[in-house]
Amino acid sequence: MKEDKIYIIGAGISGLIAALELERAGYSPVILEASDRVGGRMKTDKVDGFLMDHGFQVLNTAYPEVKKYLDLQLLKIKTFDPGAVIFDGKESYLISDPMRNPLKIVGMAFSKVGSFLDKVKMFSLTQELKKKTNEEIFNSPSVPTLQYLREYGFSQAIIENFFKPFFRGIFLEKHLNTSSRMFEFVFKMFAIGHAAIPENGMEEIPKMLRKQLSQTQLYFESRVKEIQGNSIHLENGEVIIADRIIVAVQPDQVMKQLQGQFAAPRKVINLYFSLQKSFLARPMIGLVKGEQLINNLVFMDDVSEVYAPKDRSLLSVTILDSVLEEKELVKAVQLELSEISGIKPDFFKYLKGYWIDYALPNLDDLRYQIPFTECKITDDVFLAGDYLLNGSINAAMTSGRTAAEAVIHSFMPTH
């Protein structure tokens, strides 16, 4: 093994992938992680027999990086049915497969959501994007997603009924200002792959990556205060001298000179309730139309039974923003749930809430990949994280690999 001392700050997805690639090149890196476990933003808590992911997250099975690093069979992956249940006041209707095969959709539900022409446009967009490479998607002109949908000719009805609630939950912003590049990429991934979760929760993904590491040392509860040159200053006063450092957290947290360089991240609130049984009764996401607190909801045990005890159901509710205190917010959400389901508000037993201040990076210039030379910030320090590319598990993995390549390259003799 090579003796060079390479330290990785952060045991999220990009940090773990960087370690994996460094091991493959013969290095034995060290990961310093501030929390008590791997996963970064991807964590699952076990509470009273329920599994609660930190925020509603899904893995798209079509992500190119997923095929490189994860064994979906071993993860016991559970897929969502394509489509969504739309809640419009007291009315609800099902649209199945809107991106996978829009022209095959039978029944009247779609006509409430959009027109026949919308179906045709959905079909042609799917065909177009399947032909486009991911690189081409991220090299195409960028406009806000909402503008893109209008210019493509989608009706206001389908924009309000489907695109807004569906993509607000993915982009974590209300007005679909996110770049059309991200929209095209996500739309294509949903058209060819499935939204899925590991049977035992999203944290199984970083756990699987960790299991692939054999030469990496991991130190938990090791918060980095600051990086100066090639020295790492820990909160406990310890100073570590490194040959190379990969910063796999947002770098302004540990590098004073980068403070103020990043837009405020996208936040999200995720509340969990238990109910006797699911009112959706299918492994599908529920989208709430209009200006409600709830953006989307899903009964996690409809997708993977392991998420809840046998006699209860686990409801995950996503709220994009709210100034309400926890108690008030829970009450307001219980009322909204009651309105759409007809079930009494107090039947929704509140379990736990997550206020996630950093759910997604807030980016203007979205990219699919970057040359490894762009990861380098000084001769000793390299960057990894989805904020370098786009907010996705795929990007986190890509950036981890790219940072490792940059470090490996930096040790090569220059002629």
Automatic annotation (TrEMBL):
SUPFAM superfamilies for the chain: FAD/NAD(P)-binding domain
Record-linked InterPro entries: Amino_oxidase, FAD/NAD-bd_sf
Top-rank taxon: Bacteria
Gene Ontology molecular function terms on file: oxidoreductase activity
Domain Amine oxidase: from-to ranges: 13-408
Protein name in the entry: Protoporphyrinogen oxidase
Upper classification of the organism: Bacteria, Pseudomonadati, Bacteroidota, Cytophagia, Cytophagales
